[in-house]
Amino acid sequence: MRIVLGVGGGIAAYKVASLLRLFTEAGHHVTVIPTEAATRFVGTATWEALSGNPVSNSVFDDVHQVNHVRLGHEADLVVIAPATADLLAKAATGQAGDLLTNTLLMAHGPVLFAPAMHTEMWQHPATRANVETLRSRGAAVLEPASGRLTGSDSGPGRLPEPEAIYDAALALVQGQGDYQLPLAGRTVTISAGGTREPLDPVRFLGNRSSGKQGVALALAARDAGATVRLLAAHMEVPPPAGVEVVRVETALQLREAALAAAADSDVVIMSAAVADFRPAEVSDTKIKKRDDSADPVITLVRNPDILHELVERRNAGDAGPASQLIVGFAAETGDSDGDVLAYAEAKLRRKGCDLLVVNHVGTDKVFGQDTNAVVILARSGSEPQEAAGSKADVSAAIINRISYELNHVLPRA
């Protein structure tokens, strides 16, 4: 297949080198056309080395070949990544000031735009109007990913991962209709926050979970096209718009909600911090502190293992589709008997879930923080995957991995 890969002038241009390699390693002939601004981020030597073809952004190079007409005519596919706000505007208004915009006007085959820009630019009415114009003309415009952007801010506007762009491009060429978001048509249930186990009407046993990671996962899954159900225990942040919210407090309530939700879920992500134990007895009245009374003794009983039960019920065909993907979270600390990954690998074997997201927790780590660092372990035995950054970044990596597992690894039915 003959592909024109247009590269816009944004910092995300460096990620497009990986997309180019995916195309060339699959045997496609790729002509790279960077904008002049793009060459300030990644030089032409890189594109020539990776594509094996000469690179130019001028209509005055190789004039005898009439490249500004020929390239668009011959291309089976045109991919623009990153599609900056400027490039989207030029494409929507039919400008032809350089080789890339000329090629877009001459393209006979499918065209795919992979936007990348700051959130405010992506959400600006002008950009939204340009996107709708391009889509109305038959071009495929991906939704950008949510995550860390160039500065300290995060939000929608991040370039989708090269693998996601590659899959979308092939789907477009293979006539699978308009490109769909990676989790479009999927139902994803996510638990978030920390459970609270009452001692009396005033006191409870709880944990330090803020719910930030679970909410970030819900946002990432929603932006990937999924129908999202959030099982919300105690959270310090509000649930996101556009998702169904089921409120729970205790581990038993979460178990009931999770088993019910799993019945129609393609993916279940158990990111909530669930109490392992609960008081054997709950006082109907506040437990009083009296000078003439002995210190109270609180007997704890074990809570059900919700994650393990979800896996068992799925495997037995009692709940959810056979191809359901179940993701667990493990908040671990190391000790003299083993490190964090050793404990996590043992937990993955014990629980039987498909993916296990591992946190190394501790004082001022993970709980309540805006950043995170995780390792994703897979039951399939693939190499552990690391992800770090804002909780939005980590969520994007987890959702991308889930999409990959659903499409390439898991189908059991």
Short synopsis of the structure:
The protein is an alpha/beta fold and 413 residues long.
Q: What is the fold named in CATH at topology level of the largest domain?
A: Rossmann fold
The residue fraction in helices comes out at 25-40%
Q: Tell me which CATH architecture of the largest domain applies here.
A: 3-Layer(aba) Sandwich
Radius of gyration, whole Å: 25 Å
Rough shape?
elongated
Number of strands: 19
The class by helix and strand makeup works out as alpha/beta
How many helices? The count is 13
Can you give the mean pLDDT? 87
The largest sheet is: 8 strands, mixed
How is this fold's topology laid out?
Layout: E1 2-7, H1 13-25, E2 29-34, H2 44-51, H3 67-74, E3 77-83, H4 85-92, H5 99-106, E4 111-115, H6 119-123, H7 125-136, E5 140-141, E6 145-148, E7 154-158, H8 162-173, E8 187-192, E9 197-198, E10 204-205, H9 212-223, E11 227-232, E12 244-247, H10 251-262, E13 267-270, E14 277-279, E15 300-302, H11 306-315, E16 325-332, H12 340-351, E17 355-360, E18 371-378, E19 385-390, H13 391-409
Parallel strand pairs: 1-2, 1-3, 3-4, 4-5, 8-11, 8-13, 11-12, 13-16, 16-17
Antiparallel strand pairs: 6-7, 9-10, 14-15, 17-18, 18-19
Helix pairs in contact: 1-2, 1-8, 3-5, 4-7, 9-13
